[in-house]
Write a structure and sequence with these properties.
Two copies of one chain form a homodimer. In chain A, strands 1, 2, 4, 6, 7, 11 and 13 form a seven-stranded antiparallel beta sheet that branches. In chain A, strands 3-12-5-8 form a four-stranded antiparallel beta sheet, with helices on one face. A two-stranded antiparallel sheet of chain A has the order 9-10. By secondary structure, chain A is mainly β. The longest helix of chain A is centred in the middle third of the chain and has 10 residues. In chain A, a hairpin with a 5-residue loop joins strand 6 and strand 7. Chain A has one domain. Helix content of chain A is 13%, strand content 34%. Chain A is globular, with a radius of gyration of 16 Å. The interface between A and B is large, with 38 and 38 residues.
């Protein structure tokens, strides 16, 4: 096994990373209270993508953590969560976007948001913005009211240095962000760090 | 305004229906306790589809009902719920599929499930199975535990004759099922009825 050099996703941006089967993607919140939207596609056929609906259905749970599998739309395991310091993530909301900022925040500067940043990072793989699905929103804390279904985005529970480790179960191209939405990171736009533990080499 | 003849979706199948802007799709549960998975695509460009993540985010609520908008992945309103007798639907789970039956129920007969039935109904529009997203699961009752996130599929709250009316906000091709998953309909596989109130004609 070898470990890639630690990479930094600068605030309000995204990076793509290729993973082989068995590689472990490690996502670190270096300063605490930051969210990283994670999406993934099968490298062999990018029509196969990480599916929140399949993953939640098979776990019968909204909140996924160590031991849980993240499935593709074709019901094949894409990731296994093998370590999770934080324990609370979201898998229901689409990445923030230009429209999110306008509709929810009344902001009209046209910032691309995580959606635009993910599409930019995935452009070399010919994956356009229409194909950015609901992300696995790492460290995102969304409280749910069981009676009304009301959702409340709270500051993440992640502390400085908290990490999550996800083992790839097939060859993937993944992309991850340092989130651009103020509500998600307590209005402090911070970086996200990541590395890959390579199964081969 | 004119009203189409009432159509029946036979048990464990799906139908596609074209809607113009202003048309109202009426989905009826004729016998009670049945679920209908609804998906929709913009007729002008089917890369634009009904998005659970966008809709839930903008409503800040998991459970949508009268007055709520259902958004596309491009953050444009596709439907407005204008009447809702039942009041409880799900928008987190992907349609049941051959794999669902195998993974959750241990069933190996290879029934296509709502996913396969929706893809079959949408084949004339060149929309394949990989593009069937999380559906608006009409009448589906999924209870959520706010602490653990645990999901429990319960029998629908819909009584015989309960209906939901959705006004199309753009030209759409929609598809809807009579659900094939036992857990969703209390293990009684029933039909679903629908009609369209046409804005023009």
């Amino acid at each position: 096994m070898s470990i890639d050099a630690l990479q930094r996703v600068p605030p309000c941006s995204a990076r793509a990373v290729e993973l082989d089967e068995g590689d472990v993607l490690v996502i670190v919140d270096p300063e605490g209270e930051q969210v990283s939207d994670l999406v993934a596609f099968a490298r062999d056929d990018t029509r196969e993508y990480l599916s929140s609906g399949r993953s939640i259905d098979y776990a019968s749970r909204l909140f996924l953590t160590t031991g849980d599998l993240l499935y593709s739309n074709r019901s094949r395991p894409m990731f296994e969560i093998i370590e999770d310091d934080c324990g609370r993530h979201d898998f229901t909301l689409t990445p923030c976007s230009k429209d999110t900022f306008e509709i929810i925040y009344g902001e009209t500067e046209g910032r691309p948001g995580c959606e635009g940043n993910l599409a930019h990072a995935l452009a070399p793989y010919d994956i356009g913005v229409d194909r950015i699905p609901i992300a696995f929103n790492v460290f995102m804390h969304v409280a749910v009211d069981a009676d009304t279904g009301r959702l409340e985005v709270r500051p993440p529970r992640s502390k400085p240095g908290d990490r999550i480790r996800l083992r790839a179960r097939m060859p993937l191209v993944a992309a991850l962000t340092a989130c651009s939405a103020g509500q998600s990171n307590n209005f402090r736009y911070k970086p996200i760090d990541y590395t890959v533990e390579r199964a081969a080499g």
